[in-house]
Design brief:
Helix content: 40-55%
Strand content: 5-15%
Number of helices: 8
Largest sheet: 5 strands, parallel
Strand order of the largest sheet: 2-3-1-4-7
Radius of gyration: 20 Å
Number of strands: 7
Bound molecules: zinc ion
Order of helices and strands: EHEHHHEHEHEEHEH
Distance between the termini: 15 Å
């Protein structure tokens, strides 16, 4: 019988504020596998003083430059070969481009890809309704509204909308996301690895669907109908 030695090489895809980071974290905790994200890898890079690749990447970041995609790829490949990934990992924030998906294909044996689907309209609503004050208190005009939409209830400072949350900015981010993601989705669909989850459901329901799908995969791997 074929036994996959690393049964949980899992990828989580989805637009911003789809809740994909939360789901990745939940699944990583449930399965006791590492949550691998490019954000965390890049964040912890400076502490890896003995790693020449990490130091090269850190020098880009110190200069405020974008880290070249090729270096990010190598970091991810290095990360998922570490001992703690012996049963797999739950990864989010990668791949972001079709080229990265192809790179991952050559450096990993992905078991399942989850796409947390949320409509553009919902994303725009979730982001454009956010208001913050200068002390970092965050409100949402619909989901956690302050008494006065222009004043922070916690500290009394004026509320404003961050540039990143403005409708036009969100729309252009979504355009980039779809442009890259369409190819990635097709890539994993052709391999039979893609599972789409409705991310507009309650967080608990999203989580349960992911777990159910993983159990189905395991059942078919051990031949239990
Ligand atoms: Zn405040």
């Amino acid at each position: 019988m074929f036994l996959n030695e690393k049964p949980f090489e899992l990828i989580f895809l989805g637009p911003p504020v789809s809740g994909k980071g939360t789901q990745t974290e939940l699944i990583a905790k449930t399965l006791d596998i590492p949550h691998v994200s490019t954000g965390v890898i890049l964040h912890s890079i400076k502490s890896e003083v003995d790693n020449p690749l990490a130091q090269e990447v850190a020098s880009y970041m110190d200069q405020g430059q974008l880290v070249p995609s090729e270096l990010v790829n190598r970091l991810v490949a290095e990360r998922i070969k570490k001992d703690d990934c012996k049963f797999g990992y739950a990864m989010d924030g990668f791949p972001r481009t079709f080229e990265q998906a192809q790179f991952l294909d050559q450096n990993a044996d992905v078991d399942r890809v989850f796409l947390i689907n949320v409509s553009d309209q919902t994303i725009i609503e979730r982001m454009s309704g956010r208001r913050v004050c200068k002390n970092g208190h965050t409100w949402h005009l619909k989901y956690s509204p302050p008494k006065d939409p222009t004043i922070c209830d916690t500290c009394g400072e004026p509320l404003f909308q961050r540039d990143d949350d403005k409708e036009e900015t969100v729309k252009s981010r979504l355009e980039v996301y779809h442009r890259e993601m369409d190819g990635i989705i097709k890539f994993y669909e052709d391999k039979g690895l893609m599972t789409k989850i409705d991310g507009e459901q309650h967080i608990e329901e999203v989580y349960q669907q992911i777990v159910r799908s993983l159990v189905m995969d395991l059942r078919s791997k051990i031949g239990w109908k």
